[in-house]
Each structure stands twice: as structure tokens, then as C-alpha cells.
Specification:
alpha+beta, 3-stranded mixed β-sheet, 3 helices
């Protein structure tokens, strides 16, 4: 399975990372997703947005569940040294 396209916004002192994918009909760069990611970033929360394969192919039909689940990011996000700062 090919790696899915993704966008990471990681503030310098991020205390958490919110991972989210787009809804049907709107890609990861949709204005509402941009607004959410920017707002969370201002509050010290990193965001990772990713694109499903069907959107990359230009299809309007969502992928089968097995394909969609295989596309999700799998890496764990940790600050170097393993510690994640506390959110206020």
C-alpha cells in the first residue's frame, strides 16, 4: 500500500497531536480543515491531516473499508526523548 499524502502542523511546544481525515467531498486542504488546524496550532496542538486514496485518484466514491484503514498514518508521534509536554 502506498503511503497516503499528509500535512503536519507542529507548533514548537506542542502538547498533543490531533489526527484527522477529511469528510466525503472535501480534501485535506479544504478551508474548514485549514481553519481547524490553524486554530489548534495556535493553542499548542499539532495536527496531522491525511488524504484518502480515492481523493488522490480524483474519484467521488470512497474506498472500501480495508483500503481506507490501510491508508491511515501508523507512526506514533513523540517529542525527542520520549516525553510529551503537558497541555495547559
Amino acid at each position: 500500500m502506498r503511503r497516503c499524502p499528509r500535512l503536519l502542523i507542529r507548533p514548537q511546544q506542542a502538547c498533543a497531536c490531533y489526527v484527522f481525515a477529511h469528510g466525503a467531498g472535501a480534501g485535506m486542504t479544504h478551508s474548514s480543515m485549514e481553519t481547524i488546524a490553524a486554530g489548534l496550532g495556535e493553542r499548542g496542538i499539532a495536527t496531522l491531516r491525511y488524504q484518502f486514496a480515492y481523493m488522490e485518484k480524483g474519484s467521488k466514491r470512497p474506498d472500501a473499508p480495508a483500503v481506507a484503514h490501510a491508508a491511515r498514518p501508523r507512526r506514533r508521534w513523540r517529542k525527542p526523548g520520549g516525553a510529551v509536554p503537558r497541555c495547559r
